[in-house]
Amino acid sequence: MSVSSTGLGNLINSQLISVLFETPSGFAIFTMLEKDLKQPDAMQNVWANFGADYRVEDFIWLKEFQEFKDKSCAINQDTGVSWDLTEMIKRYHVHGQKIAVGNAEYKVIIENSLGVPCLFDEIVMEVMWGLKNLMHFLIPQEKMKLRNADRLPMSQGLMMILNRHGFGIKPEMVDNDIILATCMLLDCEYCDVKNRNPLRLAGWHIEEVSGIKFEGWDLMKLATAVNIICYPAEATITEKAMFTHDEVLKFEKDAHKYEDRFYKGLCLNVYNEMVEARAHIKSVHEALKTLPYMHEVRSSERIT
To answer: Which member of 31, 84, 185, 238 has the lowest number of beta carbons within 10 Å of its beta carbon?
Structure first.
């Protein structure tokens, strides 16, 4: 059985990499952007694209799926790659393009038998984990289920995020609820990532206009300072408590000097977004603490 799908638009072949994925009953060929495997933060981000079906649709695309009666004959060290699998690979391979594969043995066999360069590393394994997690969504033609052993190893990126938030779990205990919760944590972290540079710039404006040094302030404190400057009359006691009395007075006195520097509506959106992200993180933490198979990780044991 063979199926094809599109979704690549006008992307040129040099931007793409093929992915050979083994399912319980056969093999599938996917295509994705090679740059997504080369980003500095790929290890902690790639897995999250496979956290739920709605997250993966613009990340990787199915090209073809075939069932094989005997997968051991399709690719092995003694006979190389079978004719059917060779034809399937070649249909979507362009000269100079790599194929990502799920184990070191397949890499050697394909490179020796077909002369096609293959990629196998930790980031590719994150993709393979993700394809397993969403296998029946991405390949609805596959009717067989994965064995529990086939679902391992667990995503290193997912485990890194949990560890960073102070949680540990045995890989075999990770379920869909854990995956979705960890996706939420990563999304909330991204709120800080995308707002870091604008808020640091805002800090320099505060130092220049009001003479208040922002060194040592975290992003939430910076966002709060900007919010007080933009909306001094609406600042709460809790918000003001983050600063000295003199700093708050200076914010209020100098507020008019920032009118050409800060766009109030945009600043309010950033502030509300960061407050909401922290509320979500707190909620997820509380939910994770209730799970009997989840344990908290001491600060000294966390991956940094």
So the answer is: 238
Give the count of beta carbons closer than 10 Å to the beta carbon of residue 221.
Answer: 16
CA distance 24 to 18: 20
Residue-level pLDDT at 150? 79
pLDDT at 2: 35
Secondary structure, 3-state, the chain: CCCCCCCCCCCCHHHEEEEEEECCCEEEEEEEEHHHHCCCCHHHHHHHHHCCHHHHCCCEEEEEEEECCCHHHHEECCCEECHHHHHHHHHCCCCCCCEECCCHHHHHHHHHHHCCCEECCHHHHHHHHHHHHCHHHHCCCCCCCCCHHHHCCCCHHHHHHHHHCCEEECHHHCCHHHHHHHHHHHHHHHHHHHHHHHHHHHHHHHHHHHCCCCCCCCHHHHHHHHHHHHCHHHCCHHHHCCCCHHHHHHHHHHHHHHCCCCCHHHHHHHHHHHHHHHHHHHHHHHHHHCCCCEEECCHHHCCC
Compute and round to an integer the Cα radius of gyration of the chain.
25
Quote the longest CA-to-CA distance of the chain.
Answer: 80
Query: Does the CA dihedral 181-184-188-193 come out positive or negative?
Result: positive
Per residue in 17-34, pLDDT (tens digit) is 999 999 999 999 999 999
Contact 17, 93 (CB under 8 A): no
pTM of the model: 0.85
Neighbours of 173 (CB within 10 A): 12
